[in-house]
Amino acid sequence: MNVLELLASGPPAYRGRGTNHDGEPFIGALRVQVLGDGRAVLLHYCATLDDGTVAHTESTLLAPGPDGRLCL
């Protein structure tokens, strides 16, 4: 089973606490959106400081490339 299959069959969200490079505590949230029949997943990440300020967000698509290898 590859990473794509694990993400597509797992929970739709993950959360955890961390500390950024400035020493500020934050909550990281990763949402996994399965696309189509599980041939791709869209990953949404957000880091929120304890005061509610959004410190970072990003999204990426994980899917097989033309050669079948996983790529972002």
What does this structure look like?
- With 72 residues, the chain is mainly beta.
- 10% of the residues lie in helices and 57% in strands.
- A hairpin with a 5-residue loop joins strand 4 and strand 5.
- The longest helix has 7 residues, at 3-9.
- It starts with a helix and ends with a strand.
- The model has no long low-confidence stretch (mean pLDDT 95).
Element layout with pairings:
Elements: H1 3-9, E1 13-19, E2 25-35, E3 40-49, E4 54-64, E5 70-71
Antiparallel strand pairs: 1-2, 2-3, 3-4, 4-5
Write out key terms for the chains shown:
5-stranded antiparallel beta sheet, 72 residues, 10% helix, 1 helix, 57% strand, mainly beta
Short description:
By secondary structure, this protein is mainly beta. Helix content is 10%, strand content 57%.
Q: What level of helicity do the residues show?
A: under 10%
Please, what is the average pLDDT?
95
Largest sheet: 5 strands, antiparallel
Low-confidence stretches: none
Pattern of helices and strands: HEEEEE
Q: Nearest-angstrom radius of gyration?
A: 14 Å
Shape: elongated
**Amino- and carboxy-terminal Cα gap:** 18 Å
Number of helices: 1
Number of E strands: 5
| Secondary-structure content class | mainly beta
Output the strand order for the largest sheet.
1-2-3-4-5
> What proportion strand?
over 45%
